Amino acid sequence: MENIKAYVQKNKERFINELIELLKIPSISADSAYSQDVLNTADAVKEALEKAGCNTVEICETPGYPIVYGEKIINPKLPTVLVYGHYDVQPADPINLWTSPPFEPVIKVTDKHPDGAIFARGACDDKGQMYMHVKALEYMTTNNELPCNVKFMIEGEEEIGSSSLAWFVERNQEKLANDVILISDTGMISNTQPSITTGLRGLSYVEVEVTGPNRDLHSGLYGGAVANPINILTKMIASLHDENNHITIPGFYDKVQELSIEERAEMAKAPFSLENYKNAFAIEDVYGEKGYTTNERNSIRPTLDVNGIWGGYTGEGAKTVIASKAYAKISMRLVPNQDWKEITELFKNHFENIAPKSVKVKVTPHHGGQGYVTPIDNIGYQAANKAYTETFGIPAIPQRSGGSIPIVALFEKELKSKTILMGFGLDSDAIHSPNEHFGIFNYLKGIETIPLFYKYFTELHS
Ligand code: BES
Ligand code: MN
Ligand code: MN
User: Fold this and answer.
1) Which listed site, 128, 196, 317, 333, has its alpha carbon 20 to 30 Å from 208?
2) Are residues 331 and 191 part of one domain?
3) pLDDT tier, 426 (very low <50, low <70, confident <90, very high otherwise)
4) Where among 319, 350, 369 does a domain terminate?
5) How far is residue 445's CA from residue 132's CA, in Å, rounded to a whole number?
6) How far apart are CA 35 and CA 31, in angstroms?
7) What per-residue confidence (pLDDT) applies to 417?
8) Mean pLDDT taken over the chain
9) CATH at residue 44
């Protein structure tokens, strides 16, 4: 594959422009106002897969947004790689913090990306990373370099919990049969130090509602005598962590897999600067569970965070009022062996238990999913590592991530195969935040590296 580099160089303007076109469509799955855009994006992905050389591409209907499925089977005796990605994106708000409109992609230079980065919602998560696979396929088919079979499954509901994909996978085991699943929807350490994500956290997402009096009340006439649901909710939330920042829900840690001293020492070898980390967020100190390092806190330890909280008067000026209701959205990131449904139950029981009689509490579970760990002694990991070693000049470091792709655990359960997470984003790429971007270097390097994964996986498989 000597000419992959040359092929990327020759076609890079077109590769960038094609991605820019895809990024212009606001495929926000969470907001029904964009449903036509989500559907249009599925069509665009279908067309791109056809052009890249798939034999068949279908738009598979589901109870929700469709799944784009494509394949190129060259020989049933050869191994099959199943590529997964998502064409939906997060909402763009707060819009006013973007330096350029989220769906009008532009290339700008940053500290981390001297060669420029494409700024747009979805640039890194996940349209840009998904599209690397489409262009890698184009390279392999046009140059007769595809060494095995390939299937693509690109969904439109990852950012809202992948429930239609779960439905689809359960019904299509045979169609989706594969030897390895390949995903680029995570990150790597830096542009000079590649890494392979070997773990993802699970997730339990809940919404809580606290009701005090049956209507909003004058805070002078009733304040101090009737429970204020906002006061109560914040007190309840504060009690969910103790002074060591341990989570206080009974049973929460029962199944948490503790890492050995050796594993923790191995993890600590990954390059990391606490100074740079603090500077990136303009914080004087980090914060978290006692007894664990920053990198452990955000990968091998479970967490509980309020994602949003509201209630009462938030308009201009002052209004003296005791609101009838207060709300919060809470996410818990889970680690291997914690079961997300069990944790959701534990949360619900505990939250109901700690509420004083003067309020009513309602806990509504949203989505969730199990965590995932990949062993590094399988041929998928080894093939990925060989591919990175070749294109970056140094081996990749295994790294557990704090993020979640809940469907990966379901893939293992239903399709019985391991997932290899070849992410090319950087933590600083601002996914889910204003000014999301994806480095041109990362995009092109991904396109170069992926065909080598196919080559080494096929070699190691035989
Ligand atoms: N691609 C991310 C997950 C991710 C990013 C994992 C970086 C590791 C490193 C994915 O699109 C995502 O945002 N997942 C959600 C979960 C989902 C159920 C909404 C998350 O992690 O919050
Ligand atoms: Mn993603
Ligand atoms: Mn995401």
Assistant:
1) 317
2) no
3) very high
4) 369
5) 9
6) 7
7) 96
8) 97
9) 3.40.630.10
Q: Is 369 exposed, middle or buried (0-12, 13-18, 19+ CB in 10 A)?
A: buried
**R_g (Cα) of the chain, nearest Å:** 23
pLDDT one-digit tens code per residue, 23-34: 999 999 999 999
Per-residue pLDDT of 75-133, as tens digits, reads: 999 999 999 999 999 999 999 999 999 999 999 999 999 999 999 999 999 999 999 99
Domain holding 234, by residue range, is 202-256+302-369
Q: How far does the centroid of ligand 1 lie from the alpha carbon of residue 422, in Å?
A: 14
The whole-angstrom separation of Cα 305 and Cα 39 is 32
CATH of the domain at 310: 3.30.70.360
Q: In this structure, are 18 and 110 located in the same domain?
A: yes
Beta bridge mates, 82: 151, 181
Tell me if 212 is assigned to some domain. Answer: yes
Verify that 229 and 318 share a domain, yes or no: yes
| Residue to probe by mutation, ligand 1, list 129, 185, 200, most atoms within 8 Å of CB | 185
**Tokens 């076109």 -> residue:** 21
Averaged pLDDT for residues 338-345: 98
Q: Is the CB of 158 under 6 A from ligand 1?
A: yes
Among the listed residues 344, 398, 356, 404, the one whose alpha carbon sits nearest the alpha carbon of residue 375: 398
**Does the predicted model carry a pTM greater than 0.85?**
yes
Residue nearest to atom 5 of ligand 1 (CA): 186
Res 462 pLDDT > 90: no
181, two tokens = 């699943």
Average pLDDT of 136-164? 97
Is there a single domain that holds both residue 330 and residue 420?
no
